[in-house]
Amino acid sequence: MAVLAVRLWPDPVLSRMAGPVTDLAAARELAADMLDTMYHAQGRGLAAPQVGVSLRLFVMDATWKEGAPTPQVFMNPVIVSRSGDVATGPEGCLSIPGITISIARATAIRLRWTDLDGVMQDADLTGFQAICAQHEIDHLDGIVTLDRLSPEARALAEAEYLA
Ligand code: ZN
Question: What is the pLDDT of residue 147?
Protein backbone atom coordinates (compact mmCIF):
# COMPACT_ATOMS: atom_id res chain seq x y z
CA MET A 1 0.00 0.00 0.00
CA ALA A 2 1.19 3.47 -0.78
CA VAL A 3 0.12 7.08 -0.94
CA LEU A 4 0.13 8.18 -4.58
CA ALA A 5 0.58 11.69 -5.99
CA VAL A 6 -2.76 13.37 -6.74
CA ARG A 7 -2.80 14.90 -10.24
CA LEU A 8 -3.87 18.52 -10.28
CA TRP A 9 -5.99 20.19 -12.92
CA PRO A 10 -5.18 20.99 -15.77
CA ASP A 11 -3.21 17.70 -15.95
CA PRO A 12 -4.40 16.18 -19.28
CA VAL A 13 -5.16 12.79 -17.66
CA LEU A 14 -8.10 14.51 -15.93
CA SER A 15 -9.67 15.33 -19.30
CA ARG A 16 -9.31 11.87 -20.82
CA MET A 17 -12.07 9.24 -21.10
CA ALA A 18 -10.88 6.32 -18.92
CA GLY A 19 -10.85 2.74 -20.20
CA PRO A 20 -12.43 -0.34 -18.62
CA VAL A 21 -10.76 -2.30 -15.80
CA THR A 22 -9.83 -5.76 -17.07
CA ASP A 23 -6.99 -6.89 -14.76
CA LEU A 24 -8.58 -7.66 -11.40
CA ALA A 25 -5.31 -8.29 -9.52
CA ALA A 26 -3.79 -5.00 -10.68
CA ALA A 27 -7.06 -3.18 -9.90
CA ARG A 28 -7.03 -4.54 -6.32
CA GLU A 29 -3.55 -3.17 -5.76
CA LEU A 30 -4.46 0.17 -7.32
CA ALA A 31 -7.64 0.42 -5.20
CA ALA A 32 -5.67 -0.20 -1.98
CA ASP A 33 -3.21 2.56 -2.89
CA MET A 34 -6.06 4.87 -3.88
CA LEU A 35 -7.78 4.37 -0.50
CA ASP A 36 -4.49 5.18 1.27
CA THR A 37 -4.18 8.27 -0.91
CA MET A 38 -7.79 9.36 -0.31
CA TYR A 39 -7.53 9.09 3.48
CA HIS A 40 -4.14 10.81 3.46
CA ALA A 41 -5.59 13.71 1.43
CA GLN A 42 -8.62 13.94 3.77
CA GLY A 43 -10.96 13.13 0.89
CA ARG A 44 -14.12 11.05 0.71
CA GLY A 45 -13.84 9.98 -2.92
CA LEU A 46 -11.05 9.48 -5.45
CA ALA A 47 -11.08 8.35 -9.08
CA ALA A 48 -8.19 6.52 -10.80
CA PRO A 49 -7.47 9.35 -13.30
CA GLN A 50 -6.73 11.55 -10.27
CA VAL A 51 -3.68 9.40 -9.56
CA GLY A 52 -2.72 9.34 -13.24
CA VAL A 53 -4.32 5.98 -14.13
CA SER A 54 -6.86 6.19 -16.93
CA LEU A 55 -9.09 3.31 -15.77
CA ARG A 56 -12.75 3.16 -14.75
CA LEU A 57 -12.32 2.70 -11.01
CA PHE A 58 -13.12 4.89 -8.02
CA VAL A 59 -13.01 4.58 -4.25
CA MET A 60 -15.32 6.22 -1.75
CA ASP A 61 -15.83 6.41 1.99
CA ALA A 62 -18.73 8.67 2.90
CA THR A 63 -18.54 8.16 6.67
CA TRP A 64 -14.93 7.98 7.85
CA LYS A 65 -14.83 11.60 9.02
CA GLU A 66 -17.81 11.00 11.32
CA GLY A 67 -17.14 7.46 12.52
CA ALA A 68 -15.78 4.08 11.48
CA PRO A 69 -14.21 3.82 8.02
CA THR A 70 -16.32 2.10 5.33
CA PRO A 71 -14.01 1.89 2.31
CA GLN A 72 -15.78 1.04 -0.95
CA VAL A 73 -14.29 0.22 -4.35
CA PHE A 74 -16.25 0.54 -7.61
CA MET A 75 -14.90 -0.92 -10.86
CA ASN A 76 -16.48 -0.18 -14.25
CA PRO A 77 -19.39 1.68 -12.59
CA VAL A 78 -22.50 2.53 -14.59
CA ILE A 79 -25.37 4.78 -13.53
CA VAL A 80 -28.41 2.67 -14.42
CA SER A 81 -30.98 5.31 -13.48
CA ARG A 82 -31.25 8.71 -11.82
CA SER A 83 -34.01 10.26 -9.76
CA GLY A 84 -35.89 13.17 -11.26
CA ASP A 85 -35.07 15.16 -8.14
CA VAL A 86 -32.05 17.38 -8.54
CA ALA A 87 -30.27 19.35 -5.82
CA THR A 88 -27.49 21.90 -6.12
CA GLY A 89 -24.67 21.74 -3.61
CA PRO A 90 -21.03 22.80 -3.18
CA GLU A 91 -18.40 20.31 -4.37
CA GLY A 92 -14.68 20.33 -3.78
CA CYS A 93 -12.17 18.20 -5.65
CA LEU A 94 -8.75 16.93 -4.55
CA SER A 95 -7.47 17.75 -8.06
CA ILE A 96 -8.65 21.38 -7.88
CA PRO A 97 -7.66 22.32 -4.32
CA GLY A 98 -9.11 25.45 -2.76
CA ILE A 99 -12.00 25.72 -5.21
CA THR A 100 -15.61 24.88 -4.36
CA ILE A 101 -18.18 24.77 -7.13
CA SER A 102 -21.98 24.48 -6.91
CA ILE A 103 -23.26 21.69 -9.13
CA ALA A 104 -26.76 20.32 -9.73
CA ARG A 105 -26.92 16.51 -9.39
CA ALA A 106 -29.60 13.85 -9.13
CA THR A 107 -30.33 13.23 -5.45
CA ALA A 108 -30.56 9.44 -5.93
CA ILE A 109 -29.03 7.03 -8.43
CA ARG A 110 -29.01 3.33 -9.11
CA LEU A 111 -25.42 2.21 -9.60
CA ARG A 112 -24.07 -1.02 -11.10
CA TRP A 113 -20.40 -1.95 -10.76
CA THR A 114 -17.94 -4.81 -10.36
CA ASP A 115 -16.51 -5.42 -6.88
CA LEU A 116 -13.00 -6.54 -5.90
CA ASP A 117 -14.02 -10.21 -6.25
CA GLY A 118 -15.13 -9.59 -9.82
CA VAL A 119 -18.81 -9.85 -8.86
CA MET A 120 -21.42 -7.53 -10.34
CA GLN A 121 -23.16 -5.38 -7.72
CA ASP A 122 -26.18 -3.10 -7.80
CA ALA A 123 -27.29 -0.51 -5.25
CA ASP A 124 -29.43 2.57 -4.78
CA LEU A 125 -27.34 5.48 -3.53
CA THR A 126 -28.74 8.60 -1.91
CA GLY A 127 -27.42 11.64 -0.07
CA PHE A 128 -23.68 12.24 -0.09
CA GLN A 129 -22.97 8.86 -1.69
CA ALA A 130 -25.13 9.65 -4.71
CA ILE A 131 -23.46 13.04 -5.22
CA CYS A 132 -19.95 11.67 -4.68
CA ALA A 133 -20.46 8.74 -7.08
CA GLN A 134 -21.66 11.14 -9.81
CA HIS A 135 -18.62 13.38 -9.21
CA GLU A 136 -16.23 10.41 -9.43
CA ILE A 137 -17.90 8.96 -12.54
CA ASP A 138 -17.52 12.40 -14.16
CA HIS A 139 -13.75 11.95 -13.58
CA LEU A 140 -13.89 8.61 -15.42
CA ASP A 141 -15.49 10.44 -18.35
CA GLY A 142 -12.81 13.15 -18.33
CA ILE A 143 -15.12 15.75 -16.74
CA VAL A 144 -14.10 17.97 -13.81
CA THR A 145 -16.30 20.32 -11.80
CA LEU A 146 -15.14 23.30 -13.89
CA ASP A 147 -16.59 21.64 -17.00
CA ARG A 148 -20.07 21.83 -15.43
CA LEU A 149 -19.99 25.64 -15.19
CA SER A 150 -21.20 28.26 -17.66
CA PRO A 151 -18.31 29.86 -19.62
CA GLU A 152 -18.56 33.03 -17.48
CA ALA A 153 -18.58 31.18 -14.14
CA ARG A 154 -15.77 28.92 -15.35
CA ALA A 155 -13.58 31.88 -16.26
CA LEU A 156 -14.04 33.30 -12.75
CA ALA A 157 -13.31 29.95 -11.06
CA GLU A 158 -10.22 29.36 -13.21
CA ALA A 159 -8.91 32.82 -12.41
CA GLU A 160 -9.45 32.13 -8.69
CA TYR A 161 -7.72 28.74 -8.96
CA LEU A 162 -4.73 29.98 -10.95
CA ALA A 163 -4.27 33.13 -8.83
ZN1 ZN B 1 -12.88 15.37 -8.05
Answer: 97
The answer to whether residue 6 sits within a structural domain is no
What is the 46 CA–ligand 1 centroid distance (Å)? 7
44 CA → ligand 1 middle, Å = 10
SS3 76: strand
Active-site residue flag, 136: yes
Catalytic position from the list 29, 66, 91, 136: 136
Residue 32: give its domain's CATH number: 3.90.45.10
What is the mean pLDDT of each successive set of 10 residues along the chain, which is 163 residues long? 94 98 97 97 97 98 91 98 96 96 97 97 97 98 97 95 91
Spacing of C-alpha 156 from chain mean position: 23
- Tally of domains in the chain: 1
∠122-127-128 over CA atoms, to 5°? 95
User: What are the φ/ψ torsions at residue 44 (nearest 5 degrees)?
Assistant: -120, 0
Ligand 1 centroid to Cα of residue 119, in Å, is 26
Q: Per the domain annotation, does 142 fall within a domain?
A: yes
Its pTM stands at: 0.97
Does 3 fall in a domain? no
Note the pLDDT of residue 27.
98
